Amino acid sequence: MASPAEEDLKKALSDLKSQNPSLGIPKIHALLLASHPDWTVSEKRTRKILQSQGLVQSGQSSIIVPTSRLISGLDVKKWTTKVEPRYFDKRRGKGLVAVEPISEGELIWKEDPLVLAPEWDYFDKQVRGVACWHCSTPLQHTGLEVPCRADGSSANYCPARFCNRLCLVRSDKTHALLCPAQNPASSKLLRYARDKQWLALYAYAQVIARFILENQNDAAALKEDLEVVRSFAQIGMEERFRNSAAVLGQEPDREAWKRGHELLVQTFFDPPTADGKKKLKKIIRKPLSPELEKELLDYDTGFLSGIGLMNLNLENHGGLYVLHSHMNHSCQPNVSVRHLDPRTALSRIFMVAKTDIAPGEELVVSYVDPNMSYNRRQAELRQWGFNCTCPRCLEQAKDAKVAAPAHGEAREGLDIGELERELKLGLGVM
Length: 430
Ligand SMILES: [Zn+2]
Ligand SMILES: [Zn+2]
Ligand SMILES: [Zn+2]
What we know:
Blueprint: H1 6-19, H2 25-35, H3 43-52, E1 83-89, E2 93-98, E3 107-111, E4 115-116, H4 120-127, E5 146-147, E6 161-162, H5 165-171, H6 175-178, H7 186-195, H8 199-217, H9 219-231, H10 237-248, H11 254-268, H12 274-283, H13 290-297, H14 299-313, E7 319-320, E8 328-329, E9 335-338, E10 349-353, E11 362-365, H15 374-381, H16 391-403, H17 416-427
Parallel strand pairs: 8-11
Antiparallel strand pairs: 1-2, 2-11, 3-10, 4-7, 5-6, 9-10
Helix pairs in contact: 1-2, 2-3, 7-8, 7-11, 8-9, 8-14, 13-14
Bound molecules: zinc ion (ZN) (3 copies).
């Protein structure tokens, strides 16, 4: 075992990287050791060389920022009079600012989701018919529960049940297209999302289902929802990975992206079987315009940005909320998001002030577990397209610099495998 000369190592790494351009640092390092079993090289050294040779992006310098804009005509008063959306700048995007004093412990507003792709344990309960398909609440045998509208004698039985008629009626915005009895092609899509634990795919499917049904039932609602979704912060999946790959050592699973896209297209536009086609036709009386279909499902400009948008905006438990999604991140948040009402399980969220908030102050939540170390928070937050410069991070950056002088070492101490798993589970990231 010997430490290779700098030049030999540079040559070997640049060869490996040019043969495997999509691989991140940890995998290149593993390949290096496998192809030179007599070399002793630390991953730190590999990283330094790859970065100094410009073979990977060296973190902080290059970050792709999401785009966002204010929603025109949004009536915030229906939630609260105490906050106002504001557009800051390109880097920070939009956010929420207090316009009246808010006291610590105060419930600022509560909000129901545009769509809900509930965490998988709740999803499993929905599929077993023991939690409401609409609001995810475990069913209590109140006598008010109702089944899906689909004919129960169908070969493709739908297990969906609802708390009461209200939840049934509300689910008319999406359910028919994701119902195994009414649109059998959707079963494969939902199973795939479940197997891959890919919340963003499931949430995006619900958004598309909602648009298709609004398109034929309620043109005004479609117009309003399109404005909302187009205004959400967005970043494509490739860009999301470019931001975080060098730091997290993740590889995008493009095969899964392709398969997810294919199943979405089958579910909403082109079921593989004749029976499936016939049933879908029964639901969709008026197809989306070709422009809107392209905007939602063109692989690069529609699908990958739609999934990226879900990843940026979904609340941790799987709901997509209009006002909540405005809030920016801080590792020292002044707002916490709670699920306080057992009757609405994961669906309804309550925004509670963690501190007094003065008029003019921005409302911020934490996108990641604030108990994690500085380095780990920074690494995870790059997926949202920013380096956190909250007061707590600025303070801790000084200490981190002493411990790890070069940025390339900022990742030290992270268990990448564990982090990757957590991210995938928590955010449906693929
Ligand atoms: Zn319900
Ligand atoms: Zn159903
Ligand atoms: Zn921070």
